[in-house]
């Protein structure tokens, strides 16, 4: 009986040991499962954190890149198209060109399930975002210098053009004095010159160009007025010249008509032509005694002939021309027409 009691006591101990062993094993299993679950849960949380950090970095990069791209494609592009001739400074143009052509980073994505890789990519993305921010600042600075140089060159050129226009306007104002058809045009030019003088120190390119344009307009008005008066004066001079030519022509015609008129010529006496006796061979003539001529019955005094028979009066001193009491020196036919 004692043996049975001892056997029964030993069996109870074994059962309790088995129970504890089972409990321990179950506890160990449960502990392992818990550890495994905990590890898995930790790993999932770590991956999620890595993905979140990468996504945030990507968002920052996207914003920085968009800002850079927008400025690069707009203001920087316009400035980069300028040359040293436009700016007057080749150095700022080269600086902008180098910054404008800078190589942008390659895009990195958060498309991995490895938390460590995500961490690495996140760092790259953050550096790239910083690159865009830094280069955007540098690009704006280089663009600003080019724009400033361009503006300074434009102001200089506009001021030079205005000064040149002012010089020409002042000369025109002086030269046109008394030569315009409308003096108001010169008054307007004088006011435009005063306004341009006041605008010379401006750095507003548009204002400088506007003053130069106003001068050009006023100068055109003066030149037109000068031409109008010159044309009017020319017409007056041409009319006066035509009048003088007409008067000269009329006087010349009158003179020619006077020269063409000839008074009746006085009758001219033409002495009778007598044949000159030609010498001939002497002919033998019979010798006859000469008979004395009868004496004339009239007076032989000079200037008259004897008797009233209308005889021939001959003045031996007249060279064959007669000279009567009523005419001497004129034409005479040798006949006494006075009846003596």
Explain what this protein looks like in three dimensions:
The protein has 340 residues and is mostly helical. The termini are far apart. Helix 6 (183-199) runs antiparallel to helix 7 (205-260). The protein is built from seven helices and no strands. This is Colicin transporter. Residues 228-247 have a biased composition (Basic and acidic residues). It comes from Bifidobacterium pseudolongum. Keywords: Membrane, Transmembrane, Transmembrane helix.
Overall mean pLDDT: 79
Number of strands: 0
Number of helices: 7
Give the helix/strand class.
mainly alpha
Which series of helices and strands comes N to C?
HHHHHHH
Largest sheet: none
Radius of gyration: 72 Å
Cα separation of the termini = 250 Å
Beta-strand portion reads: under 5%
Helix coverage percent: 55-70%
The geometry reads as rod-shaped
Low-confidence stretches: 33-42, 284-323
Keywords: Membrane, Transmembrane, Transmembrane helix
Biased composition (Basic and acidic residues): 228-247
Protein name: Colicin transporter
Transmembrane segments: 17-40
Short description:
The chain crosses the membrane at residues 17-40. This protein has 340 residues and is mainly α.
Set down the secondary structure blueprint.
Blueprint: H1 2-73, H2 75-80, H3 84-87, H4 90-100, H5 115-175, H6 183-199, H7 205-260
């Amino acid at each position: 009986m004692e043996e049975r009691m001892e056997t029964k006591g030993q069996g109870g101990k074994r059962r309790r040991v088995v129970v504890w062993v089972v409990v321990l094993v179950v506890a160990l299993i449960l502990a392992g499962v818990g550890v495994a679950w905990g590890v898995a849960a930790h790993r999932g949380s770590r991956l999620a954190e890595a993905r979140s950090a990468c996504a945030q970095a990507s968002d920052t990069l996207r914003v920085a890149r968009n800002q850079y791209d927008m400025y690069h494609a707009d203001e920087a592009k316009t400035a980069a198209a300028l040359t040293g001739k436009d700016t007057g400074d080749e150095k700022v143009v080269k600086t902008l060109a180098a910054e404008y052509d800078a190589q942008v980073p390659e895009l990195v994505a958060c498309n991995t399930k490895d938390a460590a890789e995500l961490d690495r990519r996140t760092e790259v993305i953050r550096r790239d975002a910083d690159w865009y921010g830094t280069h955007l600042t540098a690009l704006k600075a280089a663009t600003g210098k080019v724009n400033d140089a361009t503006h300074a060159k434009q102001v200089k050129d506009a001021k030079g053009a205005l000064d040149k226009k002012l010089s020409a306007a002042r000369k025109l104002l002086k030269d046109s004095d008394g030569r315009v058809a409308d003096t108001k045009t010169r008054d307007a030019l004088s006011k435009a010159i005063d306004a341009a003088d006041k605008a010379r120190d401006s750095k507003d390119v548009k204002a400088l160009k506007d003053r130069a344009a106003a001068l050009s307009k006023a100068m055109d008005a003066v030149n037109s007025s000068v031409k109008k008066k010159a044309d009017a004066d020319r017409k007056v001079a041409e009319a006066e010249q035509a009048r003088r030519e007409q008067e000269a022509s009329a006087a010349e015609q009158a003179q020619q008509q006077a020269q063409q008129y000839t008074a009746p010529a006085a009758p001219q006496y033409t002495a009778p032509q007598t044949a000159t006796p030609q010498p001939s061979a002497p002919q033998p003539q019979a010798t006859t005694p000469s008979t004395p001529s009868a004496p004339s019955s009239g007076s032989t005094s000079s200037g008259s002939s004897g008797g009233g028979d209308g005889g021939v009066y001959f003045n031996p001193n007249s060279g064959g021309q007669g000279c009567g009491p009523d005419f001497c020196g004129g034409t005479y036919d040798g006949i006494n027409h006075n009846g003596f």
